Amino acid sequence: MAAYKRVTIDPITRLEGHGKIEIFLNEAGDAERAYLQIPELRGFEKFCEGRPAEEMPRITQRICGVCPEAHHLASTKALDALWHVDPPRAAKKLRELFYCAHMVHSHTAHFYALGAPDFVVGPGADKKERNILGVIAAVGLETGQEVIKHRSYAQKIQAMIGGKATHPVCGLPGGMSKPITEEERQQIESMALSIVDFAEGSLQIFRDVVLKNKDYVDLIVSDTYSLNCYSMGMVDENNHVNFYDGVMRVVDPNGKEYVKFLASDYNKHFAEHVEPWSYLKFPYLKNVGWKGLVEGIESGLVRVGPLGRLNAAEGMATPRANAAYQEMYSTLGGKPSKATLASHWARLIELLYAAERLVELSQDQEITSTDIRTIPTDTPTEGIGIVEAPRGTLMHHYVTDEKGIIKKVNLVVASAHGYGAMNISVDKAAKGLIKKGKVDEAAKNMVEMAFRAYDPCFGCATHTMPGKLPLIISVYDCNREKIMDLEW
Amino acid sequence: MAPKLQLAIYWAAACGGCDVAILDTDEKILNIAEAADIVLWPIAMDFKYEDLYKMGPESIDVCLYNGAVRTSEQEELAQALRVRSKYMIAFGACASWGGIPGLANLTNREDIFKTVYQETFTTINQEGIRPDVNFRAPEGELFLPRIYDRVWSLDQVVDVDYYVPGCPPTPETIWTAVEAIVTGNLPPKGSVIAGSRSQCDTCQREKTEKKIAQFKRPYEIIPDPNKCLLEQGLICCGPVTRDGCGHRCTSVNMPCRGCYGPSEKVSDQGAKLLNAIASIMDVKDEESARQLAATW
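^ Those are the sequences you sent over. The predicted structure of the assembly is below.
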């Protein structure tokens, strides 16, 4: 066997969770193959067995503290289905408002703190500066403070509704735990209006810093950073992007609709493959099939997240975001876009949509309604809930006994959906950038840029733990004499 | 000018929420950046393990270690960071007590692997492939850390100086800890930097010392927002949980789940909670106790 030289990037950085890249160089010093490995597994699928189902929104969100609202709501929707209960309309609107605020937080954090350093500070800049502090130094403290302020607004709105911005507690089968007051509504509305301007400003920064720089545009449209595969996202009745509710739409690499399906049918369309070199599984379109880590219409790999959603949709449901959507595709030369780095652009368009939708919902007559709970009366059985997490489609599936105690759990998360795509992207970037043994810091970071565009969350991806805790409660009287043992 | 504080922030078996909580100090994050050089923070900075391993003993002033320890890599990092840090802080519920990932101690690695890689609804794995610590790829060997049979809190792996509780810690709790570190005004080693009383001691809900005749699950009732949740039949961890979180969950009418850990006088939070609940059950004898327990 030929001797390969090894280049290791450990840990990969500016993402959520753990990951490592191994690049093997052949005798000529060219990258032969790169692997994106995930070195962790927590096992939520197993250790959630035996828990009361209504606790799942509070347990499963500990899969990810960057997108806890996504897990909280996918789980809450699974509970609606499990208990066969339809929440009041106002509760659904309140959930969506809460969720749009979440998208604002997550997309802002990713663009400015994780993604932008590569463009604003530069892909080959000193790593001491290639971070959010370097971004603030480059764009000015005033802009930096705007970023901090508006992400903070998003966190405040979530905390107002969910108790906590990170790991909220408001979701219950059939509704929400607390309505909002008129005073809270007004605060949300005024913050939302300000976030719309902030989102427009963020798109302008993208145009100025990235699109006006020919080198960056060349990079975005280069073959090194392209990926030809299926795209998936949730859409409303007009095939416009929706994060909270709708049907799943998958388009093929040519942009043709491949399938539309309801959450309850997810396992007719998706399967997961196991590789021996990573703790993370590879989801793929079951009816296309697992063909390995390869591109094209014959391979079941999908792109999810901002670019996947925009590719899978036919527009945005709000006016300004829709204009930005049209601008992006006309600049990139049509749909679907294969340009992985355009994910950053798509993310900002979604930021604008989330902001506009926040305004709409905060001005909705019904949003302060106190009719936000339907108490379930049916016997719980099985439930599936899907939302679009910031990083892509998130699926929760529970089966319980008649008391609502969890018997079986399946979680197919956003960053797992994108894991196959990310592996190919990292491999292509390594092959495109590492030649004749030349591997400097800039080249290594530019390989990392290939996964970073996806904004992966390997915290989410490594969720994957049953068990009844044998519990006996001994009750003693005031003389410390045991009265009884209770099995619970 | 005093030399800048050398700060490391690391995540192990964690969710990233503790890292986001640090960002949630908002404009104060700029003060933190002013007072400290961050030498490792994988979510936001590009320093790699090789950069850490080049650093000498005690060259880091403070390490905020979040997440539980469940892989060989997380254990190695805990040890590497301990040696290089003057103060090692268990940051958040998982590092302090195991947190939600600690629920994995109700099972074991084999059962987890079996469920995840063979049994879930969407897994197709007829060959029975399992991820392994070594794999011989055509181009060379690939390595993964070993996943342990159980999950450890940070102080079960290395010596810990302080604890910052919460899932996640509030920005106020974080800022209290940062100020104590920056000013050198530190409590005795082993202290938990948060309140010292219980949630119930500072809860504003009305309590009537009444006994409960029936347990309720959160989905079954819309509780009175002004009255004690426990007295309304909901299991609430308030009696045994440390305060300092600002009553974030009860403020939106949901019961406490104990993320700030045991209060000052409590060692086993779960057992103490059962004790507290048993004491308010309105029962006369064994049969009525069984009936009441069965209402949950």
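Residues 107-147 of chain B form one domain. The mean pLDDT of chain B is 95.

Shout if you want it in another format.
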